[in-house]
Amino acid sequence: MASRRPLLLLLLLLTALGCTRKKTREQLVEARVASLEQAIEAQALSDVREMLTEDFSDGQGRNRAAALDLLRITILQQRGVHIYQEVEAPTFPREGEAEVVLYAAVSGTPLPSFEHLAKLKARLFHVKAKLREVEPGEWRVRALKWRVAGLDELLE
Fold it and tell me: pLDDT tens track of the chain, all 156 residues?
């Protein structure tokens, strides 16, 4: 048993190191986009608010408060919002800034995949998100621009 003790300690150390491995900035940005989707679907508007920077803008003149009001109205009208998204890899144009392009299908009923878009009459949007690193490893959405997209864009 004594001869196994150093091996066991080494395995425990390697396991601990593996568990504490830092996430890449790409992983952190992708996680932020995913958590924003989850918060919207859960109707957790206070969580959504915390994921947006104070100077958030949406490209249509809405600040953070107005964007949250629009989301609140959409949730009430739809009796919930379900999102399915395809996210491209984030880019980093400058230190502390990230950009993500994604297609988001939005529906009042759950969307298991993009193949269900036509059946559920979901709306498809092309979204460009800009994120800012507000603290090391913590990314928040600074700006969103979106437009209605066609299904043909996904097939390109």
Answer: 455 554 544 444 444 444 445 789 999 999 999 999 899 889 899 999 999 999 999 988 999 999 999 989 988 887 777 787 888 899 999 999 999 998 888 877 777 776 666 666 677 888 999 999 999 999 999 999 988 888 777 666
pTM of the predicted structure, to 2 decimals: 0.78
- As a whole number of angstroms, the distance between CA 76 and CA 106 comes to 14
- Would you list the domain boundaries of the chain? 23-155
Length of the chain: 156
Separation between Cα atoms, residue 151 and residue 114, nearest integer Å: 9
In 5-155, DSSP assigns E strands to 52-57, 82-87, 97-107, 123-135, 138-148
Q: Which fold would CATH assign to domain 23-155?
A: Nuclear Transport Factor 2; Chain: A, (3.10.450)
